[in-house]
Amino acid sequence: MIGASTAGAVVVSGIGVVIDGRPLLADVDLTVRAGEVLALVGPNGAGKSTLLRAIAGDLAHSGTIAIDGVRTGGEAPLATARRRAVLEQDTAVAFGFRVGEVVRMGRAPWRGTRRAVDDDTVVARVLDQVELADRIDQAFPSLSGGESARASFARVLAQSTPVLLLDEPTAALDLRHQEAVLAVARAHARAGGAVVVVLHDLSLAGAYADRVAMLASGRIVADGTPTDVLTADRIGAVYRHPVTVVPDPNTGTPVVVPSRTVQEASS
Ligand code: ADP
Ligand code: MG
């Protein structure tokens, strides 16, 4: 069973990050339980990637962060790599590697264990999940931007960890693949995992997240259900742009529509 913690798969307690005298995060508390997808939203520069890096254990901070009850930094990196997988916002282009090889790199934490026998099956399954099964032998740098993002997501899935930390996984993707990535995230949570996903598309957050946490200037300004957090007043104030929020006609989840001034076409 994965993510069987009662305390929460990810528990962030009072963390702060200061770089060059500038506070990038302050007083951040956040709990993500097994079975949950948490969307982390907020304007450019709010501190979303910084928070994800801190949760991943890749950034010095004050306060404490635990994944499945184990403090990050309190165990060998290999053990951490078996608990959480990270999709960074800017993934390096892997020159000289084929798509299948890049995805297989995600299996590295399991090398030499009994789970390594699953490598071929896992690589095939995750490539299928991102609809790149037919690209397994293509040179990674020759993929389109969106394909490259999906292959990187597949590498993260191949790591087979209970916790997924995804920084803007949908930024380069078309409509179909945005929905597909979040459907995979939901399935991961349904299977007992936990997902923290940074999203700019607030309607996607509204549709797929169990909870939304909104960051602004390094602080959590709201944390709750999509309906509670994604209000027109709050979004308008935090993003400094007026919006209308309407219920999705099929699901009732909040759809966020930015206010626009459309020029009349001249006749
Ligand atoms: P976002 O919410 O857009 O992901 P980030 O977490 O990447 O924001 O960055 C938050 C703020 O911290 C930004 O203003 C960014 O310029 C700044 N920042 C991030 N990393 C560093 C760093 N290593 N040194 C200085 N400033 C940084
Ligand atoms: Mg970012």
Looking across the biggest beta sheet, what order are the strands in?
6-7-8-3-9-10
Q: What sequence of helices (H) and strands (E) makes up the elements?
A: EEEHEEHEHHHEHEHEEHHEE
What's the β-strand tally? 12
Q: Let me know the largest β-sheet.
A: 6 strands, mixed
Our count of helices gives: 9
Q: What structural category characterises the helix and strand content?
A: alpha/beta
Low-confidence stretches: 1-6
Shape category: globular
Alpha carbon gap, first and last residue: 65 Å
Present as ligands are:
adenosine-5'-diphosphate, magnesium ion
Averaged pLDDT, please?
A: 94
Q: Proportion of β residues?
A: 25-35%
Give the radius of gyration.
19 Å
Helix content: 25-40%
Description:
This protein has 267 residues and is α/β, with parallel strands linked by helices. Helix content is 30%, strand content 26%. The chain contains 9 helices and 12 strands. The protein has helices spanning 48-56, 77-81, 99-105, 119-129, 145-158, 175-190, 202-208, 226-229, 232-239, and strands at residues 10-19, 22-32, 37-41, 62-67, 70-71, 84-87, 163-167, 194-198, 211-216, 219-224, 243-247, 254-258. The strands form 3 sheets. Strands 6-7-8-3-9-10 form a 6-stranded mixed β-sheet, sandwiched between helices. A hairpin with a 2-residue loop joins strand 4 and strand 5 (70-71). The longest helix has 16 residues, at 175-190. The chain is globular. The N and C termini lie far apart (65 Å). Bound molecules: adenosine-5'-diphosphate and magnesium ion. Magnesium ion binds at residues 48-49, 89, 167. GO terms for molecular function: ATP binding. InterPro entries: AAA+_ATPase, ABC_transporter-like_ATP-bd, ABC_transporter-like_CS, P-loop_NTPase. This is Heme ABC transporter ATP-binding protein.
